[in-house]
Amino acid sequence: MDFDEVLKEVGAFGLYQKIIICSVLLPAALPCAFHAYSQLFIAATPEHWCRIPELEPWTQDYIELVKNLSIPRDRHGSFAECSMFARNYSEMVRYLEYRTPYELQREQSSKLLRLDQESVVSCQHGWHYDRSMYPSTVVQEWNLVCDRSFYVTLALVLFGLGGLIGNYVFGYLVDLWGRRPSFYAYLLLEIVACAASAFAWNYHSWLGLRFVVGLTVPAILASPYVLAIELVGPERRVFCTIVSNIAYSLGLVLLAGVVYLVRDWRYLTLAVSLPLLMLFSCFFVLPESPRWLIAVGQPKRAARILKVMARVNGVHVTRDFVERLQQRMLTTQPAATTHYGILDLFRGTNMRRKTLIVTLIWFANTSVYVGLSYYAPALGGDEIWNFFLAGAVELPTYLLLWPGLSYFGRRWILFISMLIGGVACVATLLYQQQADVMLLLYCIGKMGISSAFVVLPLLASELYPTVVRGLGMSFSSVVAMTGPIIIPIINHMGQQMLVLPLIVMGALLIVGGFASLFLPETRGKNLPQTLEEGEAVPLSFLLCCCTDKESKKRQSQSQNKGLGRNRKQLPEEAATVYHRVGGVIIKKANRVKRYRTKNTRHIELYQFACFLRRLDISIPPRL
Question: Cα–Cα distances in Å, from 376 out to 12, 335, 392, 445, 590?
């Protein structure tokens, strides 16, 4: 049964859908943004240096003096974070006790600095931390610095691994339980796990709870979006995609505000989790998807929701609406159901290539989007301000995409977005010492990937045939979820070279951008329904030679199968004339059907085309 036709009877995009989307589904995007990126501040690494117990009395008031006496400098002139001078600090303390700090500052500790300069060892007694930005973080509490700094990256890797597993497991539960129960189940698990991590007693307990939070993040993001597009007609799905991404970006901006007000990691963890309990107040307002209810054979529940939808939208439905809905289900039940698997995505040459290209681009987009969001605090300067900009620059991008997708299509916008973002990231190699230019290029890169992140799911949904559309998009997104597992490791490698992660991500974007040129444009095209229709859609001009050969092969195969066994073939001379005027015939024929023209010439061309079709004549391919 075509549910979109039923939806038109009650209002495909009326007041009911607008209320649900704006009041419930938009706030539902906040948990994903909060919990996916709050870890950047919960586990922030401030400036630190080795702790010298003998010099503790001078640390609070004369920190520069203590650093000069005990901490070596690196090649850039900054104090080392993981090493100290191996000196007899007990004798140094006796020397300090008989001199005022003013005298030591005047002498600039020159006499003391000449002692054992070559002897440098790693920190022996812990670290001191700069608490001006963050009074307390996970890193400060459990000393996750120097040789233990990878523990912070490990937390992000396991968080991404949890997202990969959760995306796979909870994807089945959405179809098993329904959209609304599964969303609130994920939300409750996420809030409880995140709030419990505020009371973690050691690093390993905190790590385990963060893994549980990671399990739920993809499902929290996907459930409201799926429910939104199932409540509206096909022509409004682009709107739902744009609005969902706007809500996600607003969540990033709002998270920056929360971090600005709450800096202690335990209080911050509670601040980004407990307020989300207010979403449970919408439990009885948020409806179940009537499309899902009909699919699982519950037309009465679906009809009740559709009646409420019609009443709010101001549409009158007849009393026998439930009976007519059930009758439609009975009359449109398929005789047999064919089950498709992942291997069906790779059987045909065209489908295999399109699946691999879409998956590659999806992997690039997911990796770079998450990677740039993780990278924001590493840009230098105010980390909270950088993260705020990273979320704010996405908003104008979505407003430009809204009309652009309708007028310019999908493929070229995807290519241009990824190319601009990739070039901006790679260009940071030339401006490593200019912080303002680095920040500008970073924002351009973030705008480019944000645009591509919106276009790709729409393009993929229009490329995959209906019978494997959900399977294809799930396969591509699950493979892409390996990106957030790998990208924290690349960012960790950038501790020695700040722009290395940006160069890697920029190169990945450029490769994905050029790969998008192989895909066909889908704007204004009918969606393929079967695998055969999907296989018949050729790739783009960059593979024109291959696709021409394959199209000829498919044509000959279809004729051998009996699809055109008794067809006559137009003579070669006539075929040449047909190809010469073929474009005119199609153009004028469409004009006859669309505008009902009275031009005799156009009508004759239209009748000629219909005549060829009626005779079932095979046209030889153009040479």
Answer: 40, 55, 12, 12, 53
Report field, pTM of the whole predicted structure over 0.90: no
Asked if residue 263 lies in contact with residue 134, where contact means CB atoms within 8 angstroms, the answer is yes
- By DSSP bridging, strand 120-122 and strand 127-129 are unpaired
Contact 123, 146 (CB under 8 A): yes
Q: Compute CA distances 239 → 18, 21, 245, 314, 528, whole Å.
A: 11, 11, 10, 22, 22
Burial class (CB in 10 A: 0-12, 13-18, 19+), 247: buried
Instruction: Tell me which amino acid residue 302 is.
Output: A
Residue range 370-425, pLDDT digits in tens:
888 888 877 777 889 989 988 898 888 888 887 777 777 788 888 999 999 999 99
**CA dihedral (567, 573, 579, 582) positive or negative:** negative
Question: CA–CA separation, 447 vs 396, rounded Å?
Answer: 9
Q: What is the DSSP string of 223-265?
A: HHHHHHHHHS-GGGHHHHHHHHHHHHHHHHHHHHHHHHH--SH
Taking phi over 0 as left and psi of -120 to 50 as alpha, with beta for the rest, 385 belongs to alpha
Number of helices (H), then strands (E), in the chain: 30, 6
DSSP state at residue 137: -
Measured between its terminal Cα atoms, the distance across the chain in Å is: 44
Query: What's the DSSP call for residue 561?
Result: T
Tokens 């901490």 belong to which residue? 71
Question: To the nearest 10°, the Cα dihedral for 151, 185, 257, 196?
Answer: -50
| CA–CA gap between residue 33 and residue 255 (Å, rounded) | 8
Could you give the 3-state DSSP secondary structure of residue 122? strand
> Could you give the CA distance from residue 71 to residue 434 in angstroms, rounded to a whole number?
27
Question: pLDDT tens for residues 557-586?
Answer: 544 444 444 444 555 555 555 555 555 554
> What is the pairing mode between strands 568-569 and 617-618?
parallel
pLDDT in tens, 292-328: 887 777 878 888 888 888 888 888 777 766 677 666 6
β-partners of residue 85 are 120
**Of 377, 387, 375, 370, which Cα lies nearest the Cα of 499?**
375
pLDDT of the residue at 111: 55
How far is 476 from 165, CA to CA, in rounded Å? 14
Pairing of strands 120-122, 83-85: antiparallel
Task: Decide if 372 contacts 446 (C-beta within 8 A).
Answer: yes
pLDDT at 103 over 80: no
